[in-house]
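Thread: quick sanity check before group meeting

JM: Hey all, I'm pulling together slides for Thursday and realized we never actually wrote out the predicted structure for the chain we discussed last week. Dropping the sequence here so it's in one place. If anyone has concerns about the input, flag it before I start.
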Amino acid sequence: MNSTPPPGAQNRPASPEPPSPRSLLSRLLRPVATLFAVAYFLLDALAYWVVRPVARRIARLPLFARFGQWAARLGPYPSLVLVLVPLALLEPAKPVGAWLFATGRPMAGAAVIIGAELVKITLVERLFHIAKPKLLTIGWFAWGYVRVTAWIAWLKETAPVRAARRLLIAVRQFARRVGRRLSLMVRRAGRG
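JM (edit): ok, ran it. Output follows.
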């Protein structure tokens, strides 16, 4: 038996192994997941921009201060339930609102999204900030929190999100200019 390789075989590079189905699926789904995440965060940022002034006023009510004091006395797992239950009830409102928009009911869609965001910003975000130190004492929560915040930081630095952020800033500046001009026009009309 001849154990020497055929001529030229030593110079041939080893043929690359075909990608595994799992890595191929991962490479195909990553852009799709990124697109959905960008759309989700863009919708969230837009709703937050619209709802934030109202949420600030609601958060100043004495009832919210007492609720925050009560929530601060809870342990880690009751705090987790207090944050997750309203979040689980409110997050499906965005797809429902988008569906209402898509089916020709933009006012209902806007009302659902804005209402859910208003409750989420005033209640869930406030609860999360109150409960965060306790939640981070739960090992698996802290592990997930670190990874999710790192992923969100990465996502915010992607080109589509940076472009969306620039667009949102431009829209915000345009809305302020239009608002100032309308306000000026109304004042002039009132004097005339």
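AS: nice. Helices lie at 21-59, 62-72, 76-90, 93-102, 106-135, 139-156, 159-191. The CA atoms of residues 43 and 94 lie 8 Å apart.
JM: adding both to the slides.
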